[in-house]
Design a protein that fits this description.
The protein has 343 residues and is mainly alpha-helical. 68% of the residues lie in helices and 7% in strands. It is built from 15 helices and 4 strands. The strands form 2 sheets. It has a two-stranded antiparallel ribbon. A hairpin with a 5-residue loop joins strand 1 and strand 2. Helix 1 (2-32) packs antiparallel against helix 11 (233-255), helix 1 crosses helix 12 (265-280) and helix 1 (2-32) packs antiparallel against helix 13. The radius of gyration is 23 Å and the shape is globular.
């Protein structure tokens, strides 16, 4: 039972990332009808926003400390971060320690701006083009963004630490009545799940309870009629593209301590996220979230040694097997609208 609970927690962790990326993909497809293969690159850029903030906060100045000497007897040179010089040692160290959460404030305007530029500069020219053209151009854009990140940050993963208070693991099993050390789980993975739940809830609340969101949902259902009412639905859809980019970016920011950012991490998640969207139903926001968590949990259980001993490599293909079954039996997906991806 303890292994089952542990794998369930692992599934929620993976499912959180899948759900957040798939949610942004579905927002773009549902509003603009665009298959955006560059969405994984937005997740990657978000992760590197966390890296950038960490590097900015750790910029240092070198000063001589006359009270200390090196092995040659010269005054020792000490590297001191600028934030510690400006705000004091304690405050400066706290800012550096909390660089990942602080990166959220940096990432939101950056990701929204990137979303606006992508939509206005490139995507809008492909609204009425076939999905194959959209896939090719956005996939090419993803490769360009990937190589830009590689050129600036290098090819190696960059460790990005969580705040010290969230490092390490806690005894989850004790909370539910198990013996001590039966179920040990990292703090930050639980934080990531809670963060994903907040972001998903905020997006749904925005669409459900605000006038802007109601207009967007109406435009997703019948774009022409909304336009005839005198509403500039294109502008609202552009804003939604920026919001979708921000959701992907925030998912990447908070995922940085879990998986050290590297230039190809966007591609690693992109294909899986598209599978999640297809399984949940193209254009269905609840379907994207539901499928993200379901497939994350399924992948986690498939990675158990007991399962892999019976079906070697099943953890690598289980999501695709499920996708094939869903497409063959229900092409619209679990919660997709009738007529979407159906003849």
């Amino acid at each position: 039972m303890d292994q089952i609970i542990l794998q369930f927690l692992n599934g929620l962790d993976k499912g959180s990332a899948y759900a957040l990326i798939a949610l942004g993909l579905t927002l773009i497809f549902g509003t603009l009808g665009v298959v955006n293969f560059a969405h994984g690159a937005l997740f990657m850029i978000g992760a590197f926003c966390a890296v950038t903030v960490q590097r900015i906060l750790t910029l240092s100045t070198v000063v001589e400390d006359p009270t200390k000497t090196d092995f040659l007897g010269n005054p020792a040179k000490i590297s001191t971060p600028y934030v510690e010089s400006w705000f004091g040692p304690e405050m400066g160290a706290a800012l550096i320690d909390w660089s990942v959460p602080l990166a959220i404030l940096f990432a939101i305007p950056i990701m929204i701006a990137i979303g606006f530029i992508m939509e206005r500069g490139l995507i809008k020219h492909f609204y009425k083009r076939p999905h194959a053209d959209q896939i090719l151009v956005t996939f090419g854009l993803a490769i360009v963004l990937q190589e830009v990140i590689k050129a600036f940050y290098g090819a190696n993963p960059i460790p990005t630490g969580a705040p010290e208070v969230f490092r390490g693991s806690f005894d989850f099993g004790v909370l539910i009545g198990f013996d001590p050390n039966a179920i040990i789980y990292p703090y930050w993975r639980m934080v990531y799940f809670a963060f994903a739940a907040v972001i998903i809830g905020a997006v749904f609340a925005f669409l459900q309870f605000t006038t802007f969101g109601m207009v967007v949902r109406a435009g997703m259902a019948d774009r022409e009629t909304v336009g005839l009412l005198g509403i500039n639905i294109d502008r609202r859809f552009t804003i939604m593209f920026g919001i979708a980019a921000a959701v992907a970016g925030l998912a990447g920011v908070m995922y940085a301590p879990i998986n050290s950012p590297n230039y190809h991490m966007g591609m690693d998640f992109l294909v899986l996220s598209f599978v999640v969207v297809v399984v949940g139903g193209m254009g269905s926001l609840p379907g994207a979230v539901l499928a993200g968590f379901l497939l994350g949990i399924l992948e986690a259980f498939a990675s158990m040694n007991e399962i892999k001993a019976i079906f070697p490599g099943i953890d690598q293909i289980i999501i695709y097997v499920v996708a094939i079954i869903i497409i063959l039996t229900r092409p619209r997906g679990l919660m997709g609208r009738k007529g979407v991806m159906e003849e």
